[in-house]
Structures are given as structure tokens and as C-alpha cells.
Amino acid sequence: MADLLSPFAGPRAAELAERLIGKFGSLGRALSADPDRIGDADLAEACRIVHAARRLTESALREKLDGTRVRSDDPRLRAYLQALLATAPDERFHAIFLDGESRYLRDETIASGGVRQIQFKARTLFGRALELDARQLLLAHNHPSGDCRPSADDIEATKALATIASALDVDLVDHLIVTRSQVFSFGAARLL
Hints:
The protein is α+β, with helices and mostly antiparallel strands. Helices cover 46% and strands 18% of the residues. α4 (41-65) packs antiparallel against α5 (75-85).
């Protein structure tokens, strides 16, 4: 972490990194911390720096997708989703909108929730897909537990979303479950 902070914090980088790890226990937890809720001004600033570095990384990874053809097994997509979702402390439901040629249009977090479940309205997801004139859709969500196996609710919800997508002439290409170390594909597991 000191290396990440070094360009911004200079000679204080090692000390700030040690304090962040001491307070949060890991880089992942520091990335999830709200800097505005940290009473220590130096630690809050260090968190802002780490968050900025994360956003830069996410933007660089997203840039590699922009306008390109995307598949659910694309290592660029998976690296991007892991950077975006894997360290989140709560579950996040994310959509990647594609055109009819499987080219990346945009991606957005549609909902976030507790550690084990997300509540969202399909209307929000499909309303956005129709606004963007997306013809294909890749879904992803994280499991903060680190277990990337789908729950019965994950399987049921994915089937329901596939039915709605089909009725709207949108192809639900895949649904991925993302953890720090693995990505599970509903398509590859023939659950879609």
C-alpha cells in the first residue's frame, strides 16, 4: 500500500500505509471505507488517495472495453469486474450494456444491498437497457463472502430476468458472480 501512496504522500507513505492497515486490516477494507467518516484527517486523506487510485484503475480497465466486442469470458471484462466489485463490502448488482454486435456501450451498478442479498426492480435494469438501445446484456454481482457459487435465489432471479429480457428482445448473454479470486458464469454452467 505504501507504493500506492508514495506518489501522493511522499516520505509519509510508509507511515500512512501502516496506519491504514492498522485501522482497517487490509487494502480491501481501506478501499471500502468512507473517508468522510474517519476522524483522523491524515487517514481520511490517505483513504481519498487510495480511492482515487482505485477509480483511475477502474477507468483504465473500462477504457479497454469501450467500443470493443465483449464476451463474458473476456479476461479484460473479468479483470474490470473484479477491480470494480470484488472488494465491495456489500453485494452489488452490475449491468454491462452491449449493442447488437456485442460491443460495449456502458456499464452501471444497478443496485447494492446487504452482505448476502440485493433488492432491486427489474424495471430499473430494463428501463436503462431500453434507454441505451442495448440489444445484449451481461449481468454481474459480487459475493463478499468469497464463495462464487450461485444461491437458489441467484438462479431463480436470473431465470426470471432472462424471461423478461427475451420478452423485450434483449439477449441476456450471461450472469457472472465475481469474487476476488474467481468468476462464476451462469452461461458456462448452463444455468441460463
